[in-house]
Amino acid sequence: MAFVFGPVxxxxxxxxxxxxxxxxxxxxxxxxxYCELCAAKPMSAMREVANATEIVADIERALQSGxxxxxxxxxxxxxxxxxxxxxxxxxxxxxxxARFPAPPKLLILSNGSRFGIxxxxxxxxxxxxxxxxxxxxxxxxxxRVDRAARxxxxxxIIEGIATFAQEFAGELIAEVLLVKxxxxxxxxxxxxxxxxxxxxxxxxxxxxxxxxxAYKVNALSESDIEALLPLFWGLxxxxxxxxALQCPQSYDAAQILATLRRRxxxxxxxxxxxxxxxxxxxxxxxxxxxxxxxxxxxIVFYCAR
Length: 305
Ligand code: SF4
Known about the structure:
Blueprint: E1 4-10, E2 14-20, H1 52-64, E3 71-75, H2 86-97, E4 105-110, H3 118-124, E5 129-133, H4 139-146, H5 154-167, E6 171-178, H6 186-199, E7 203-208, H7 222-228, E8 237-238, H8 253-262, E9 265-266, H9 267-273, H10 276-287, E10 291-296, E11 299-304
Helix pairs in contact: 1-2, 2-3
């Protein structure tokens, strides 16, 4: 069975080689309305468990074939932390990568639901980058959007992620996916942002549906998302931007500093929102040491000092 797919180019992480821990089909403890996979009843444990040695052998074959990548991205046609041998697998992959001169980083994409479990947190320690989703911060919205298996509650998820955030030395990245009429109410988004401020990830990716989804739901427009961004004050928010969002304006140095004090802006934000003279003013602030240029998960952010 093929566990490795790609590589694909991801703007957020560079060249990514995928490792699918559930290639036979979807195995997830959520059934999100926006899922790009088919709708399926959520499960609390994997029914089909792949052999870790076979997964490692498949990764080895791919790397020996000359594929060069920045990250090995672990996914699962569902939730990868349901994989019961995750810790052992990561250890084996680490041992394999030690034989390569410029090994890729290990990245896992999770729905965050099992970070409260101690041995899941221990397995996650083996990754360089852990990305989790948070689409709700109250039970009502969580039930509607993520449609989790029985017994999974959003307060426990947030608690588990916050605990993991304190223990993890790697890069922790959050993703918020907004669905029109489900979790885009400003009060609900404020609750998500409050939870994220408590977790303090290195970066928060905010997006909406951009591919066909399991259920008939609608995306937010780019201006809808833009209007909600101030609610994420204090967090490094990254929004994938399309051409339509480019609306460069003029900012003086004081305005730039005031904006960055409220919310760090990514390089993409700067290109989309600042006209050329304002971009030059920003560079001067960087040179003067009033603005810091920091990287979070491969994305450059500008932050007021
Ligand atoms: S957590 Fe991911 S795989 Fe699982 S249902 Fe949601 S979007 Fe699909």
